[in-house]
Amino acid sequence: MPWIFLFPVWIAVVGVALFLGFNRLLCRTLNGSTIVFHSDPEYAPTLAEHEHEQWIFINGVAVGEAWLKSNINRLALTFKRPIIGVHNQPSGIIFDVIECLIQRQLGLATRDVREAYKIVKEKLYNPKYSKIIFILHSQGGIEGGLVLDWLLQELPQDLLSKLEVYTFGNASNHFNNPHRSVAEQTQEKRENSTAAADAFTRTATEPITEASLTDSPVETQAPLPALLQQQQQSTAAPQVNELKSQAQAKVEQQRSKPDATATAGGDHDHLDHPTRIAVPAAHRAISHVEHYLHTYDFVALWGALHFVANKPGSPTLPRFIGRVFSRAAPTGGHQFSQHYLNGMFPLARDESTGKFVGCADSNEFMDTVVEIGEVGVNGGMREGLQSSFAALRRDAEALEAAGVTVHGSFCKPHEEDIRDGNVRVKDLSRLWLYRNGRSPPEIDGDGVVRGLTL
Predict the structure, then answer these.
(1) Closest to 429 in 3D by CA, of 359, 355, 356, 334
(2) Where are the domains of the chain?
(3) Tens digit of each residue's pLDDT (9 = 90 or more) over 374-410
(4) Dihedral Cα 296, 299, 302, 306, nearest 10 deg
(5) How far apart are CA 52 and CA 444, in angstroms?
(6) Is 394 exposed, middle or buried (0-12, 13-18, 19+ CB in 10 A)?
(7) Please, are residues 62 and 91 in contact by the beta-carbon 8 Å criterion?
(8) pLDDT tens, position by position, 79-115
């Protein structure tokens, strides 16, 4: 504000005071009186099949109360689950950017960060919930990263395993998701060792079989990993054995159906029922972390994309862990609903009424063939396409070469979902499998059946 020096000091002080007062009054009007919001039941009523889940969202900069409600209602309509919104209240775009920089560099915990931490921690400790979905946008990625740092320091692994994190236009400079043990970390670092690769392949490739997408959040439609079969012989895991029996019974019941992947109308649409489902990164504290970014989004450019696309100059620099989907589209901006959700999870209309009824089962982004990232995606710092792609292949050589972070997958033998033999975004995106109330099969890398209460 160079013009301020052209006036006497008292005029400059009065001008600044008037600006701050008007800005505060405007922001208070936009923010409302509360910080926690819930999506409207008309977009996603509470259903019994989703009672074990809790979805939580933190917004980005310059989002008032009305826009936050619009965001969580949009999420509710897309995924057919009730959403809790923690309001990152704006203070004006200039002050929001300043706050972003302070939070990002110094770890400032504002009121909404503390509130989000309280909510997520309470939900993780609540035995009613077996799955907590944490969705973050823009500055919300910074705040959510701070929440995760606290949770990783305090919570036991069996609670952290409930958590899944999905970010859009992430402005953070780090995203932690450590290994659960030194042995697992060392094994990944020795990915170029033949002996380590051989041992790794024996677990990563067993089994690879068919597992169709299920509309039920508690139904497991895939044979259980060998590790869970070994647990059956242990007297210390009677509850897990019971879960195995229940899950295997559901598998046999599913196999007895004429066509497990047919749609309600009898059509065999590979877009409606994808069968390539990646098992989570079993050696990480949080099994599922995905980042969705636009290369034309300036916030993503100085945020997540900077740390994903550039080779780190030192192993001590902040790490950015998680599977990254970077979309190069000139129409891709930074707004959550307008650019990210409309571009990656667009809505479908009812032909008779013209109203939005949920997420469209096909779109350009999800049908896009993925490409291998160049710099910064290798070496165990994050889940690059090489490891993700290798996890979708049958041959052990690909698994050995990539040092797979996502351990194995359940593949359909004839690859009907990928007509031309290429891997598409929808084949790697776990969040896509939640659209319209659906749920992916829930077996984690250690053979623990998720979605069922112990």
Answers:
(1) 359
(2) 36-178+275-437
(3) 444 444 444 444 444 433 433 323 323 322 222 223 2
(4) -60
(5) 17
(6) exposed
(7) no
(8) 999 999 999 999 999 999 999 999 999 999 999 999 9
